[in-house]
Amino acid sequence: MESHPQGDRSAVEARFAEVFAHLGFITSYARHRGARDADAIAGEAMAIAWRRLADVPVDDSRPWLINTVRNLLLAERRREPATGSQSLANLELEAPLEPLPPELELDPELAAGLRALSEEYREALLLIAWDDLTPAQAARSLGMSRTAFRVRLHRARRRLTDELAAQSYISPVSPQQTNWRQT
After folding, report:
1. Is the pLDDT of residue 11 over 80?
2. The domain 1-94 is classified under which CATH number: 1.10.1740, 2.60.40, 3.90.1570, 1.10.3470?
3. Which of 58, 123, 148, 174 is buried most deeply by CB count within 10 Å?
4. Whole-model pTM?
């Protein structure tokens, strides 16, 4: 059977259009993770996605794109002599040029609690809460099993709760309080 080159090309372009639809998402992801030039990082991630389109999952490309952006961010940190030896958790982020809309600003106490967490725990919470991924998608984006991610997420939630309670921002959950999982 003879394949039609124009049909193959339009199928590839349509597939890439599905991936490219997440450009705003990964630009935002890069910006929230402290990229010096989030647009450039997102553009490079899209260029990689174009070259490796066969490797990008068809069902949901966001975890694959997040993993690519994370690798680009880590490479960016390694290239910078002043910050190359620092983890992402210890970097001082520059203030955004434009103030964030009020709905995107974090409560100062919550921001302090998140900063107190390890990089791995903070990333687990942000993938779920900020980037709106499911635990399965977040696990894929980090290259780990669902079970391992769920354990990390549970520990991250517990540590954040403990951190906020230690700073007197919230009261710890007592046996008399309703467990959110049971409601």
Report:
1. yes
2. 1.10.1740
3. 123
4. 0.66
Long-range contacts of 90-94 (CB under 8 A, 24+ apart): 91/34, 93/34, 94/34
Q: Please, is 60 exposed, middle or buried when counting C-beta atoms within 10 Å of its C-beta (0-12, 13-18, 19+)?
A: middle
DSSP 88: G
CB 61 within 8 A of CB 22: yes
- How many Å apart are CA 141 and CA 63, to the nearest integer? 4
**Check: CATH 1.10.3720.10 for 106-170?**
no
Instruction: Give the DSSP letter of residue 182.
Output: G
pLDDT in tens, 67-79: 999 999 988 888 8
Residue with tokens 């990089």: 119
